[in-house]
Design brief:
Number of domains: 2
Largest sheet: none
Number of helices: 8
Radius of gyration: 33 Å
Shape: rod-shaped
Low-confidence stretches: 182-194
Mean pLDDT: 81
Number of strands: 0
Distance between the termini: 74 Å
Helix content: 40-55%
């Protein structure tokens, strides 16, 4: 008795040894037209064996690719689709280029740093004050999320001044939003009582 462990390893085990043997027989057929018909029959059987594949878009192309893989790209037939080559399948993807940049305070992130550059160059006025308060509250929340023990409103004030080279400052009487509910102290939203 011959065990599967003693047989040649299957190329695509999901199709089993029967399909692999059909492909091996197809490779030995000398008449090109008959070999083509045999390949088309194998494709039909593969689709029947794996009905889930027919639900996928462009499933026939995938089946023909798998037939080429099963034959080690040795099957000389007229493929209805361009077959994906072995080099393309085994090729390693090119490494991604990450936008590595030096961030002064990593817990705020590079977007905060970029926004502070914009804020620094804005003319003084009500819009700059509103954006400064929004950024200060965002920075407080970021600092709170990063390390709750290190969260200090004085640090946020110092970081804003550091980012903007002292051109943007936060007033001493500025009221930060609460990090627990995101509302300013004294606002209507923060006065709502919690339901019991």
């Amino acid at each position: 008795m011959t065990y599967n462990t003693q047989r040649e390893k299957l190329i695509l085990p999901e199709y089993g040894r029967a399909i692999q043997e059909m492909v091996d027989i197809c490779l030995q057929i000398e008449d090109r037209q008959e070999r083509q018909r045999c390949a088309e029959t194998i494709i039909d059987i593969m689709a029947t064996m794996n009905p889930n594949v027919t639900q996928q878009p462009d499933y026939e192309h995938k089946l023909w690719d798998q037939l080429a893989i099963l034959s080690n790209y040795q099957l000389d037939i007229d493929y209805p689709y361009e077959v994906v080559r072995a080099e393309e399948i085994t090729a390693r993807p090119k490494p991604l280029k990450y936008p590595m940049q030096r961030i002064r305070y990593r817990h705020y992130g590079h977007l905060t740093e970029n926004f502070m550059k914009v804020l620094k160059n804005m003319p003084e006025g009500e819009e700059r004050e509103r954006l400064t308060s929004m950024m200060a509250n965002f920075m407080k929340r970021s600092l709170y999320n990063w390390n709750r023990d290190a969260m200090d409103e004085r640090k946020v004030r110092a970081d804003v001044e550091s980012y903007t080279d002292g051109q943007v400052t936060i007033a001493d009487d500025f009221r930060y939003a609460s990090v627990s509910n995101g509302h300013l102290p004294g606002s209507n939203a923060s006065k709502k009582k919690r339901r019991k």
